[in-house]
Amino acid sequence: MSGRIAARFAALRAEGRGGLIPFMTAYDPDPATSMAMLRGMPGAGADLIEIGVPFTDPAADGPTVQRAGQRALKAGGSLAGALAMVRDFRRDDDETPVVLMGYLNPILAYGTERFCADASASGVDGLIVVDMPPEESDELTPYSTPCGLDLIRLVAPTTDDARLPLVLDGAGGFVYHVAITGITGTRSGAAEDLAQAIPRVRAHTGLPIAIGFGIRTPEQAAQAVRVADAAVVGSALIDTLAQSLDAEGRARPDTVRRVLDEVRALSEAVREARMAG
Of 50, 125, 229, 262, which one is the catalytic site residue? Predict the structure, then answer.
């Protein structure tokens, strides 16, 4: 178990509240703007941060995250660049957990053993490899586990009780519950479906559960943490970023502020969610 992820969820439990996990794509729309957003997120209320690694073929991502990846790749984004961002972030923040989310291909191209060593040295706490099924996790675990990297598993609405133990075997950090069947950012999971799904997952794991895919508004984030331990918000923040760019796709002076203001609004809703209950 990663020290930072476990410590943060323990602190959230002690406070009696859920957590907010904003998602951003490394180098979107450029390295400096991306870095400024990353540095500003903890102060805006992020409890953990997910950084997306730009990839040419992001099969699980909807149009919003795909476009973010294209902007990032155009700006020079890469797996090595994402690790460099985390290293820079760690100079000022040694407490906020950081999770890299991406696809297996860039890791294999980088070299799995070298990647895990470099990720750990850079200050990464966990990995979400979207297209790596549990049956293929031995590509990564022999190197990620000794390096103290939590391998965070995705559980879908279609994951049945027979498969859950296999999916969760060797999982670390937290469980990422995908709220919908489909790609990111396209629609939202129904509250009643989540209220039934989360207890079923809890029966198979003691890890915290975060809900992602389709959470766009403060109200939806609040609903998520009433039944789970954290809410992941990505596409809504990326839409805000994209809408702030000029006609050439460049950041404007208020781009970072607009994204961080939205993180702040989401955080306030998440922090107050259980008080209203």
Answer: 50
Distance CA 212, CA 221 (A): 9
Contact call for residues 198 and 228 (beta carbons, < 8 A): yes
Cα(56)–Cα(164) distance, integer angstroms: 30
Distance CA 21, CA 270 (A): 10
Please state the rounded mean pLDDT for residues 27-33. 98
Q: 192 an active-site residue?
A: no
The Cα 256–Cα 241 span in angstroms is: 8
User: Which residue is catalytic, options 28, 47, 61, 150?
Assistant: 61
Q: What domains are there in the chain, each with its CATH number? A: 3-272 (3.20.20.70)
HSE on the CB side for 16, CA within 13 Å? 5
Tokens standing for 81?
């660049």
Would residue 50 show up in a list of annotated catalytic residues for this protein? yes
- Prediction pTM value: 0.94
More confident of the two residues 274 and 142: 142
